[in-house]
Amino acid sequence: MPRYLRNLLIALVVLGVLFGLDFVFQSRMISPYFTRILMLSGIAVTLAVSLNLINGFTGQFSIGHAGFMAVGAYSSAYFSVTYGANLADTLGGGKLGWAIALAAATVIGGAFAGLAGLIVGVPSLRLKGDYLAIVTLGFGQIIVVVLNNIETVGGARGYSGIPIVKSFFWIFLIAILTIVIVYNIVNSAFGRALISIREDELAAEAMGVNTTRYKVMAFVISSALAGAGGVLLAHFDGYLNPKSFEFIKSFEILIMIILGGLGSIVGSVLGAILLTVLPEALRGFAEYRMVIYSLLLIILMITRPQGLLGSTAAFKGWRGRKKVKTRTEAEEITAEDTRTDVSVDKATLGERQSESSLGKGDKE
Amino acid sequence: MSTFLQQLINGVSLGAIYSLIALGYTMVYGVLKLINFAHGDIYMVGAFMGYYLANGLGARGAQALGMSADGMIARGLLGSGTLEPSLITALVVMLLAMAICAVLGVIIERFAYRPVRKYSRLTALITAIGVSLLLENGGQVVFGADPKFFPELFKKQNIELFGGATISSADIIVLVIAIALMVALQFIVFRTKTGRAMRAVSFNLQSAKLMGINTDRIIMFTFALGSALAAAAGVLVAIRIPRIDPLMGILVGLKAFVAAVLGGIGNIPGAMLGGLLIGITETMVVGYLSPTYKDAVAFAILILILLFRPSGLLGAVAQEKV
After folding, report:
1. Statement to judge: residues A347 and A261 lie in one domain
2. How many CB atoms lie within 10 A of CB A89?
3. What is the interface pTM, i.e. ipTM, of the complex?
4. Which residues form the domain of A357?
5. Which chain B residue has its CA at the smallest distance from A132's CA?
6. A361: exposed, middle or buried (Cβ count in 10 Å: 0-12, 13-18, 19+)
7. Residue A339 in contact with partner chain B when CB distance is under 8 A
8. Same domain, A161 and A199
9. A294 CB near a chain B CB, below 8 Å?
């Protein structure tokens, strides 16, 4: 099995490189500030790539990602606080023991976040476009409110005393694993089913794709990976606060993938790094930092709406849902650049209203 | 019973404010199909404009202005004038704040939303998030990050009702002004030429254009109208609860948006109904269950409604056509 061996070899090399880099960063040859930004970028990559699976590749517009991240972060933090030290000691203590304890925490965080994704996804993925976005946003907010009310994990004061286990190795291993998982999904039969849902859900269903099942699966995987990102964050500073998982955080991840380009893994990685580094790079502007950041975001959207590396295809799913399909491809390409796409939506809206004015609208 | 009545009064008063903001969301969504995330922040700017105007005019100076106007207007309109004399101050401040925010809304539409209108809706949505962040962060720089206390525009009194509940004069003012604004909006949308053009644009932008409607102007007008209502809500909220800060628009905006969806987004009476429902349920939860869960209520209702009736309470059900 040469392919198998080759992959194994690549994995070993990557692990070796990560381990070497980890050593470099641990030895404090590089400034702790830079190391911190780098590690935060790694976490952001995990989050962005996982969100891209559901938003970019499946075309289901979810903006509650921070909620799943919170579930992963809090469940793993609770595990680490309660059992982490014991587990690490039984496993021989020291760095290795903690590494295994963190691995266990990651699995637990990912599992809980995936479960939350299942609970949220099954009912809400029946909705489309704006409505799905709103429901995921709502679920994300509800998770935050619930966390605020659980006193065992600190409630609104935040959860402190989480063992700090951060290493370059671990963060980037998870980030790379996320990229590999998403890449492999996208390039498999499963991924083609997801992309077919993005392109045209009705047609996909007609071709025998069980759209609900695939959407839910993609959503659960995406949530679980976000949960793993949350685990990393929980063990990064040893402190969690429900406030940091509000919808602003979801927007931040969303902006990363849109900026990088929906449906592009490389784009998500770039977007994640850029949006983590940018606020730091703007630190020289002191209090104007976030003002400049938001201005840059608006300007970028005006000048490069498809993102840095985006395929315009990813936008079709959420754009002209109905009438575009009857057009030829050539017309569709022109539609990219003209106002027609807006008119399509207007047309659908028009249909909707004319139905209601005829009194037929209230029937399912 | 008195608790129930009291919570109902509070809820209706809060709901009226949600409704005012929800109207802006729903109108913009009607014409552009855009979730204008910056709308909640316009409400915040409205409250701050009210704050600066009230202080700038000088609460006393305004009173003097109000007094002189009071003589003419109040006697003409209200007869013997049983209401607070400085009610006029509140009105002047509110109208000015509305005008400023209407201009702000038009500027945002012209320079941020219009350039991306030709792209996908997703781009527009991210731009809206960008504008929202800009207003929040800009607000923290310009207004200062710490909360400010809104000056008292008129004397507050509590009026005893039957059953032991009390209603404050602030609540009455909020309700009266909110209802007046909604009636005015109904008039504009359903009885004027511009309103007809607005409805035409939300019905079908392309056809409206072919019928000779200046759609850009109508979209601008929609933004102005929505922003003015949000500013009014900002001042009204500050009259009820005088603590304002640059991030006050985030959660309220989100809830108002939820209210718009609840009533059926794009539907004007729906937004009013949705706002009232959210306001009342929220205060009921605070009164009878736990105040810490009040922020989850709006979203819980929303999720339930969307799962069972995705187009909202009053929204028309869209039929999927292949």
Report:
1. no
2. 13
3. 0.82
4. 319-364
5. B306
6. middle
7. yes
8. yes
9. yes
Indicate if the alpha-carbon torsion angle A192, A194, A198, A203 is positive or negative: positive
For residues A260 and A270, give the distance between their C-alpha atoms in angstroms, rounded to a whole number: 6
- One digit per residue, the tens of pLDDT, for chain B of length 322 reads 678 888 888 899 999 999 999 999 999 988 888 889 999 999 999 999 998 888 776 544 444 444 444 444 443 333 333 334 467 778 888 999 999 999 999 999 999 999 998 888 888 888 999 999 999 999 999 998 889 888 777 777 787 777 777 888 888 888 899 999 999 999 999 999 999 999 999 888 889 999 999 999 999 999 999 999 999 999 999 888 888 999 999 889 989 988 998 888 888 888 999 999 999 999 999 888 888 888 888 888 888 888 888 778 887 765 555 5
Assessment of whether the complete model's pTM goes beyond 0.90: no
C-alpha distance across the termini of chain B, in Å: 53
Residue B258's closest CA among B283, B227, B281? B281
Between chains, do A342 and B117 touch, taking CB under 8 Å as contact?
yes
Q: Which residue of B has its CA nearest to A306?
A: B123
Q: Are residues A325 and A198 in the same domain?
A: no
Total domains, chain A? 2
Closest partner CB to B129 (pick from A255, A305, A361):
A255
CB A28 within 8 A of CB A22: no
Q: Is there a contact between B122 and A318 if contact means CB atoms under 8 Å apart?
A: yes
A303 and A332 in a common domain: no
* Main-chain dihedrals φ then ψ at residue B190, nearest 5 degrees: -105, -10
Where are the domains positioned within chain B?
2-308
